[in-house]
């Protein structure tokens, strides 16, 4: 944080420049804006060096007298409040020559003076600040910044001892210490503000005017100085103020975690990002998913499904040891089974002979619930696919034979949502996102391909989310993963349906072509290759 040196501040004549400064009604110095330090760090024109100008300089009369700069104390009153004390801020250049020095070196040539003068960039700048009542300070603190300037603080020994364990320890080591130097300070401005806060009675009100980034800087310096009341006030501020964005949150958490002082109450701040309850993630996730599945409000439900799916995908990017994949999958599959049981019950109600005689509002309610449960299953399938755990869902869906039988008895407008689930599974298998067993793939096609083909025409024209080319490619690739005899059985059945209904049936021509080549062309090519290989072997034997 800084290099500590104990020494005396060199006294000497300095060039004084006025700098704006604010003094509170309490009588302590308010930290000037960073512009003050930046301006004090900018290179200044050396003495006796004329500014470049287009017109030649005018010669001065012989009797003219060079004026000496005068230090001016600047005090700003806020409102009508009386200021009980004042503070002084001056900027000085220790490398500037005093008036007496200039007179003593009057006979030196201009060229010699230029050679001996140091570069402006290397000349340190000094800011001098006095706290409390003028003339009552009994100690100096010098801060040497990395930016090339220093700050001399006129302070009170008893205030430093009372507020700062760092200063108290240094002063106790040397009772007659009159000057303390802290070198290589990374943040001189905040050091100065921290000392100023030692004179502040209402620190909370003072910190409320700052932003989170500056409070973190103050917190870091206050911990180094052992300024415990300031540390506690900063933590109270951080506990109450909103953190804007992930980047700011990470800065707050990392800074607070680095605090090592005893008795520092950091838990209230960190409780915003962590919990002491071990099973909160599991129980909370289950509760959130249950709320989404039971919602009937279309817009809110759609947006929450999107948000939860996005956040779960972020969780999937974590290392495997940081995720409870098995536990989460078990919870999702429980929700899947619950939705399937509800969907089967609704299908049974809709398939009853007396269903058409029920009032229209009751029929509409059942149809709406069928669409809702089918949408729930599609969403849960998306979650499982992202988690690479949807193979069991394929088996679960392939075994819904009773649901597939009831499917034929319902009007197409009531049942087509279920076919969307089948189409989604075929797409996932075709992409390699699901790797169910051969038996599961066979059962899935046997149970749900024909219901999907029955609803295909409606899906193309009545379902905006249905992607025909994607589904057809998925079905074809799923078929081609089976043994050749199974491919032939399914594709020949498809040919009969396609010749009858045309575009109202999935177009599996690409899969049909692959099966054709595997069946009729590949054996011939292999036989030709074997014949050539055998003939070459015989010729080599004869030779």
UniProtKB/TrEMBL annotation:
Region (Disordered): 40-69
InterPro entries noted in UniProt: At3g05675-like (IPR038920), At3g05675-like_ankyrin (IPR058039), BTB/POZ_dom (IPR000210), SKP1/BTB/POZ_sf (IPR011333)
Coiled-coil boundaries: none
Any GO BP: protein ubiquitination
Name under which the protein is recorded: BTB domain-containing protein
Natural source organism: Trifolium subterraneum (Subterranean clover)
Keywords assigned by UniProt, alphabetized: Ubl conjugation pathway
Principal subcellular localisation of the protein: membrane
Superkingdom in the source lineage: Eukaryota
Pathway this chain belongs to: Protein modification; protein ubiquitination
GO cellular component, one term: endomembrane system
């Amino acid at each position: 944080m800084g290099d500590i040196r104990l020494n005396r501040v060199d006294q000497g004549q300095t060039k004084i420049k006025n700098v704006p400064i604010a003094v509170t009604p309490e009588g302590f110095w308010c930290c000037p804006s960073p512009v003050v330090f930046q301006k004090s760090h900018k290179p200044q024109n050396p003495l006796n060096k004329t500014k470049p100008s287009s017109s030649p300089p005018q010669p001065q009369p012989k009797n003219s007298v060079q004026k000496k700069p005068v230090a001016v104390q600047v005090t700003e009153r806020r409102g009508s409040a009386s200021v009980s004390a004042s503070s002084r801020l001056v900027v000085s250049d220790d490398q500037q020559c005093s008036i007496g020095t200039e007179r003593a070196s009057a006979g030196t040539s201009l060229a010699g003076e230029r050679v001996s003068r140091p570069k402006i960039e290397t000349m340190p700048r000094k800011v001098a600040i006095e706290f409390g009542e003028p003339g009552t300070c009994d100690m100096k603190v010098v801060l040497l910044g990395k930016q090339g300037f220093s700050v001399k603080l006129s302070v009170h020994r008893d205030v430093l001892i009372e507020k700062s364990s760092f200063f108290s320890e240094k002063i106790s080591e040397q009772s007659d210490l009159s000057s303390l130097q802290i070198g290589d300070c990374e943040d001189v401005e905040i050091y100065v503000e921290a000392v100023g806060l030692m004179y502040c009675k209402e620190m909370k009100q003072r910190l409320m005017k700052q932003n989170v980034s500056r409070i973190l800087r103050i917190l870091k310096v206050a911990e180094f100085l052992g300024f415990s009341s300031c540390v506690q006030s900063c933590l109270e501020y951080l506990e109450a103020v909103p953190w804007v964005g992930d980047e700011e949150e990470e800065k707050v958490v990392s800074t607070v975690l680095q605090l090592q002082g005893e008795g520092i109450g950091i838990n209230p701040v960190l409780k915003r990002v962590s919990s002491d309850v071990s099973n909160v993630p599991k129980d909370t996730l289950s509760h959130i998913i249950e709320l989404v599945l039971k919602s009937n409000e279309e817009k809110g439900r759609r947006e929450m499904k999107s948000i939860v799916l996005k956040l779960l995908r972020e969780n999937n990017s974590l290392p495997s040891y940081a995720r409870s994949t098995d536990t989460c999958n078990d919870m999702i599959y429980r929700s899947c089974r619950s939705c399937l049981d509800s969907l089967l019950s609704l299908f049974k109600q809709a398939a009853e002979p007396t269903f058409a005689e029920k009032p229209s509002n009751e029929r509409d309610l059942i149809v709406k619930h069928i669409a809702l449960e089918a949408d729930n299953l599609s969403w849960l399938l998306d979650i499982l696919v992202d988690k690479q755990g949807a193979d069991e869902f394929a088996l679960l869906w392939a075994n819904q034979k009773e649901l597939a039988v009831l499917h034929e008895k319902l009007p197409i407008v009531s049942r087509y949502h279920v076919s969307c689930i089948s189409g989604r599974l075929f797409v996932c298998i075709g992409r390699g996102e699901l790797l169910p067993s051969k038996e599961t793939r066979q059962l899935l096609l046997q149970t749900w391909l024909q219901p999907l083909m029955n609803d295909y025409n409606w899906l193309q024209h009545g379902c905006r989310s249905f992607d025909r080319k994607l589904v057809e490619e998925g079905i074809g690739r799923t078929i081609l993963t089976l043994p050749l005899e199974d491919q032939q059985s399914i594709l020949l059945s498809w040919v009969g349906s396609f010749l009858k209904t045309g575009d109202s049936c999935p177009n599996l021509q690409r899969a049909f072509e692959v099966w054709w080549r595997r069946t009729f062309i590949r054996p011939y090519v292999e036989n030709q290759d074997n014949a050539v290989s055998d003939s070459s072997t015989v010729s080599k034997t004869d030779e």
